[in-house]
Design brief:
ATP binding, CooC, seven-stranded parallel sheet, globular, Rossmann fold, single chain, binds adenosine-5'-diphosphate, CO dehydrogenase maturation factor, alpha/beta, binds magnesium ion, ATP hydrolysis activity, CobQ/CobB/MinD/ParA_Nub-bd_dom
Length: 254
């Protein structure tokens, strides 16, 4: 079981890279894959063509109701049951999808974070998945609150701008503050002009992070999005797909 978390400043391409690597794992039949959309905007599901999947937030509403209706059952039993069905409903062609969804604001998430952590550890980390890909929103503290905070590979997506490169160090600092354990840090450049890649590589290496290479600007994304298609419809020789293939090789090889 390998947990990959995708991080970086908004708009740098976290969702895109998560989807491209998932596509690669599914194509290679690299074991069972769970995709976790941990961003409240829920973009990953639509890039993958898995929108309509019930979300964890929906499930929490059901949990609250069942808790009131069945006081004889323990919270953890109800939660585990609902969580198992949620994963079943998230079954896609070649992978499973779990959407965290919205709900933080209403406070209902905070109340059940302990349950979620317990169930997440048992079902997901001790479970049957070979790969868990998490498209993370704000950063490590957000994900650590809901899961155990154990991540094998943190993949930070960046361009060559200072604001984006600054997130590299911040992610590591926040991870240590919240007690998240991250084994390896990787950096991938996205939508970055070739002459600026050296700067990204230097920034990564100065922190001891491994630079995995770059995903080029790929016009096929616009085409696919325009036609309402998904990442699975990108041609195999699409520049971003080819670059993601090499990046996947490096991640799997580690
Ligand atoms: N390599 C690329 N080539 C072309 N468009 C890209 C590329 N990477 C990302 N995009 C586009 O940029 C936008 C933001 O990417 P996204 O992956 O959603 O960023 P994030 O998840 O980090 O906010 C999307 O519209 C996406 O299609
Ligand atoms: Mg995103």
């Amino acid at each position: 079981m390998k947990i990959l978390g995708f991080f970086g400043k908004g708009g740098t391409g976290k969702t895109t890279l998560t989807a491209l690597i998932l596509r690669e794992l599914v194509r290679r039949r690299e074991g069972t894959v769970l995709a976790v959309d941990a961003d409240a905007n829920e973009c990953l599901a639509s890039v993958l063509g898995a929108d309509g999947t019930p979300t964890l937030s929906d499930m929490l509403q059901k949990y609250k109701r069942q808790r009131e209706e069945s006081p004889e059952l323990t919270g953890i039993d109800i939660f585990q049951n609902l969580f198992d069905s949620l994963l079943m409903e998230g079954e896609q062609d070649g992978y499973e999808m779990l959407i965290m969804g919205r709900g933080e604001g209403s406070g209902c998430f905070c109340a059940v974070n302990d349950l979620l952590q317990a169930v997440f550890e048992k079902t997901v980390e001790g479970g049957t998945y070979s790969y868990l890909l998490m498209d993370c929103e704000a950063g490590v503290e957000h994900i650590a609150r809901k899961t155990s905070g154990k991540i094998n590979d943190a993949i930070i997506v960046t361009d060559a701008s200072k604001v984006s490169l600054d997130t590299l160090k911040r992610i590591r600092d926040v991870a240590s503050e919240v007690g998240a354990t991250i084994e390896r840090y990787y950096v991938v450049a996205n939508k970055t002009r070739p002459e600026m890649l050296e700067k990204v590589k230097e920034a990564a290496e100065s922190l001891g992070f491994k630079y995995l290479g770059a995903i080029p600007e790929d016009p096929n994304f616009t085409e696919v999005a325009y036609q309402g298609k998904t990442v699975f419809d990108l041609p195999d020789d699409s520049p971003a797909v080819e670059a993601a293939r090499k990046i996947t090789d490096q991640i799997l090889g580690a």
